[in-house]
Each structure stands twice: as C-alpha cells, then as structure tokens.
Amino acid sequence: MKNNFLHLYFIDNTKNEYESKLDKILQENYSTKLIRCHTGKPYLQNSTFGISLSHSNKFTAVLVSSSTEIGVDIEAIQPLENISTLSLFDQDEQNYLKKVEGKNFLETAYVLWTLKESYFKVFGK
Predict the structure, then answer these.
(1) In terms of residue numbers, what domain contains 16?
(2) What pLDDT is stored for residue 85 in this prediction?
(3) ∠ CA(37), CA(42), CA(46), 5° rounding?
(4) N-term to C-term CA, the chain
C-alpha cells in the first residue's frame, strides 16, 4: 500500500528569504529541490511528490503531497475597495455572493476565490 501524505507549511516572508527557507524544508524533508517548468509551474526535481505554492502579503504557503496533482492558495483579506470582487466569479457564484451580507460577504468571497485558485492549479481550468 502506498504511503500517502499531505504536508502544509507556512513560511514567514517578512525578510524576503522564503526561497532559502523553502530550499531547506525540501532538502531536509524530501531530499529534493524546487524546479520550475517553462510555464513557471513548480515541481520537485527527481521526485514523484507534488508541490504547490502561494504567496500573499508576508506569507508563503507550501503544500507537498504524495500526489502530483495538488493546489494551494492563500490570500490576505483586504477591504472591498481594494479588489473588484464580483468580476472574479462566474454568474452563479456572483448570484450566491449577492445573498451574503456584511463581514460574511468578504470572508465568503475570499474562501470561494482561494478554492477556485487551488482548483485551477490542479486542473488548469
């Protein structure tokens, strides 16, 4: 039976040192390093493990899995005047969000957006 795993790391990026921290995590825990293909998508050198990265504000999320098809997304929640929220969603999602009020709208919009981004990273659509 295959040993499945899913590991999530959060790296504080306040000193812009995330790459060296990520290199250390990958070398110590998986004996590999991060490579990017021609499209910029990350993968692990000489490994069957999957990796997904997301950056937001001062943090980087790193998801490593025994599956090669994974995706992660994080977003710093910003006030609505800093994002054009509804244009990020299809019509059904917009209709759903129009029913959500107040602070719940902002949180719901970000949850939906990060789920969509993670899905896109896995399936590309």
Answers:
(1) 6-65
(2) 64
(3) 80
(4) 31
